[in-house]
Design brief:
Layout lengths: L21 E4 L4 E4 L2 E2 H7 L2 H10 L5 H13 L5 H8 L7 H12 L11 H26 L13 H10 L5 H14 L6 H10 L5 H13 L6 H9 L5 H13 L18 H17 L3 H17 L5 H11 L7 H22 L16
Antiparallel strand pairs: 1-2, 2-3
Helix pairs in contact: 2-16, 3-6, 4-5, 4-6, 5-6, 5-10, 6-16, 8-13, 8-15, 8-16, 9-10, 9-16, 10-16, 11-15, 12-14, 13-15
Bound molecules: acetyl coenzyme *A (ACO) and oxaloacetate ion.
Acetyl coenzyme *A binds next to α15.
Length: about 375
């Protein structure tokens, strides 16, 4: 029976779930989130609007958005023991691993862990959205031997996140650009991390476990870890010509270029990358220095000409985060924090209509 089903390496093209959350509609060229186009939403709305859309099924009005922000602020505080746990980690621990540890440890504070009803799961998701930015930033700070930072409730959700990272209150423009990056990262159908979360949830395991597994998945360079790898690559050189040369050498060595290609949008640009490129233009304009934009555009041209490949979101997120003054090791944890909402929506949906994931194999070992 297992050998009768066609094997698709990497499960390419395989339908793994029925979902009412999102779809990458490649024909219409839209990222559909609960019936709305994410790119259009990113022009008018903010991250918390998408949080409301994903968890409450509708875009909020002003009062609902304010109530949501207030609810998150009320839950900002992280148990002191989580900070103590982070302090015990060895100094070379990547913040993504610090975050995974902190997130995993939060399970112990949930008094209703066995309750997987949508209401309780949704409530947990809000708790994680409130606490993860503080855990993320402090796992970095503690590892760098800096004092933990406390969230500021007088700032908006995104402005506070960026403030905790840089130590400076962001300008309105910086906060808006950061907020848009969170929105663009919020949900994307069935990437590896979402599949991981749903597979874990399908055993009736809890939201903490499902998301802890998803952190590990998202850390990899073929997935969320690419945003950090892109920045390290850009920082290897300091001019357009040197960047072009670097990419050509990497391609000659058959290396994969981080920030390019995508399982679904392989031969066209990820629409989120285009939005992020706009943000990069704005930041370059404000700085009066277009070097990073020019390098990235030259990289795009090399990859289009040499490989017919286009940028994904991580390619343009990296220079945007750099110009916002964000340490590179926080790029992937920020991606995860933003994705917490999408992942939670998927776990809620999986728990609501569950069947255990248990595929078969195409056996190529010795016959008995
Ligand atoms: C927000 C996100 O998580 S987006 C993804 C972020 N990840 C990256 O940017 C990492 C770089 N990109 C990649 O490794 C891939 O494009 C992936 C992992 C995103 C998609 O992978 P897959 O769908 O499995 O494609 P696969 O790796 O089989 O590539 C198909 C072909 O394109 C080539 N290719 C794909 N991406 C790249 C790349 N970034 N650089 C060079 N060549 C590439 C492959 O070498 C392969 O060529 P071949 O057929 O001659 O062997
Ligand atoms: O969809 C994917 O495979 C990866 C991706 O872009 C994301 O998770 O945002």
């Amino acid at each position: 029976m297992a050998t009768e089903t066609k094997f698709a390496p990497g499960l390419e093209g395989v339908i793994a779930a029925e979902t009412a959350i999102s779809l990458l509609d490649t024909e219409q060229e839209k990222i559909v989130i609960k019936g709305q186009d994410l790119i259009e939403l990113s022009k008018e709305k903010g991250y918390l609007d998408i949080v409301h859309l994903l968890l409450e099924d509708s875009l909020p009005n002003d009062a609902e958005r304010a109530a949501l922000e207030e609810k998150l602020k009320e839950r900002y505080d992280v148990p002191a023991a989580i900070i103590d746990i982070l302090k015990l980690l060895p100094p070379h621990t990547h913040p993504m691993d610090g975050m995974r540890t902190g997130l995993s440890a939060l399970a112990g504070y949930d008094e209703h862990l066995l309750d997987r009803s949508p209401e309780v799961n949704r409530d947990r998701a809000y708790d994680l959205l409130a606490k993860l930015p503080t855990i993320t930033v402090n796992s970095y700070r503690i590892l760098k031997k800096q004092e933990p930072v406390l969230p500021r409730k007088d700032l908006s959700y995104s402005a506070n996140f960026l403030y905790m990272i840089t130590g400076e209150v962001p300008t309105e423009e910086q906060a808006k650009i950061f907020d848009r990056s969170l929105l663009l990262y919020s949900e994307h159908e069935m990437p590896n991390s979402t599949f991981t979360a749903r597979v874990i949830a399908s055993t009736q395991s809890d939201l903490f476990g499902a998301l802890t597994g998803a952190v590990a998945s998202l850390k990899g360079h073929l997935h969320g870890g690419a945003n950090e790898a892109v920045m390290y690559m850009l920082n290897e050189v300091d001019s357009v010509a040197a960047f072009e040369e670097l990419l050509l050498k990497k391609l000659q060595r058959k290396e994969k270029i981080m920030g390019f290609g995508h399982r679904v949008y392989m031969r066209k640009m990820d629409p989120r990358a285009l939005m992020m490129k706009e943000s990069l233009k704005k930041l370059c304009e404000a700085k009066g220095d277009y070097r990073l934009l020019e390098m990235c555009e030259a990289g795009e041209e090399v990859m289009r000409t040499e490989k017919g490949l286009y940028p994904n979101l991580d390619y343009y997120a990296a220079p945007v985060y750099w110009l916002l003054g964000i340490p590179i090791e926080l790029y992937t944890p920020i991606f995860f924090s933003a994705r917490t909402v999408g992942l939670s929506a998927h776990v809620i949906e999986q728990h609501e209509n569950n069947r255990l994931f248990r595929p078969r194999v195409h056996y190529i070992g010795e016959k008995y």
